[in-house]
């Protein structure tokens, strides 16, 4: 019998080619680096932005910005969510994540500074593209379990007192929003110059805030190269037991998992079978 499998379209072929070239470029970058375990996470520096952009591309987000511009704008397949990365931004926010309002859900906005580790934003993005969890702990429970100190009902800080998270009221009439800041110590106080910030407006879904704070407080180290930019001199770096190849393999495995999840989510549901017709009892023909 002839093979009836449809041939791949030009778009599918181009997408596969682009994916392979992107992974090859990522592998080439990290093959030349000796990975170092870097802790704490809030001082690890920005890392590789492709931890974010590759994950969203694997979920079907497409680039809508000029391919020759350093600015990257990715948009979800339903056009509701968008992510902007601008390394030439004149403001303190290099990353901006937006959700448009719908008939049933409000719009929301989040932004992240230059030195926010890309892995933290990647964890948030992975949670955004996945189905919302039925139950999830609050950010405070996550932070407390990781050894962070609760300052008040609506604030906490890292053990080194350099990173703070606060559910802050801008004014008495506004719903509180999430503010996360890492600051240098200034004359023995934690109120020195800001290193980086993250901000979630009051309408941001709580499970996304929890995902970011869980990744932030995770004691597991992040991998950085010997000459990668870090956020503060007090960061601790040790040679990692992971090889460069293992770092690339972990990245590839994550992207494969995102693709499988995306296919499952968007797979057409089978139509329900039509209900069988009710049986009727034939009536005998009346005799004339």
UniProtKB/TrEMBL annotation:
Pfam family of the protein (one): SPDY
UniProt biased composition (Low complexity): 271-288
Domain spans labelled DUF317: 76-133, 158-222
InterPro entries to which the protein is assigned, alphabetical: DUF317_SPDY (IPR005523)
Stretches for region Disordered: 267-288
Protein name (Swiss-Prot/TrEMBL): DUF317 domain-containing protein
Species whose genome carries this gene: Streptomyces desertarenae
């Amino acid at each position: 019998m002839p093979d009836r499998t449809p041939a791949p379209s030009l778009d599918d072929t181009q997408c596969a080619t682009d994916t392979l070239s992107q992974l090859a470029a990522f592998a080439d970058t990290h093959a030349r680096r000796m990975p170092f375990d870097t802790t704490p996470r809030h001082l690890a520096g920005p890392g590789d932005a492709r931890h974010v952009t590759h994950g969203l591309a694997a979920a079907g987000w497409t680039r809508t910005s000029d391919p020759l511009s350093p600015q990257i704008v990715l948009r979800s397949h339903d056009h509701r969510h968008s992510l902007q990365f601008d390394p030439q931004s004149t403001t303190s926010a290099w990353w901006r994540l937006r959700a448009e309002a719908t008939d049933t859900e409000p719009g929301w906005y989040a932004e992240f500074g230059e030195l926010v580790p890309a892995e933290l934003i990647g964890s948030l993005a992975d949670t955004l593209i996945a189905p919302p969890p039925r139950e999830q702990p609050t950010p405070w429970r996550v932070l407390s379990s990781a050894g962070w100190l609760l300052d008040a009902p609506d604030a906490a800080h890292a053990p080194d007192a350099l990173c703070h998270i606060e559910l802050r009221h801008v004014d008495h009439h506004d719903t509180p929003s999430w503010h996360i800041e890492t600051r240098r110590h200034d004359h023995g106080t934690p109120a020195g110059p800001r290193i980086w910030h993250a901000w979630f407006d009051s309408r941001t879904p709580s499970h996304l805030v929890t995902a970011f704070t869980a990744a932030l407080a995770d004691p597991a180290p992040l991998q950085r190269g010997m000459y990668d930019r870090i956020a503060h001199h007090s960061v601790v770096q040790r040679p990692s037991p992971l090889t460069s190849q293992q770092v690339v393999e972990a990245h590839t495995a994550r992207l494969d998992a995102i693709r499988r999840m995306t296919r499952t989510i968007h797979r057409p549901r089978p139509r329900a079978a039509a209900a069988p017709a009710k049986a009727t009892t034939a009536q005998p023909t009346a005799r004339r």
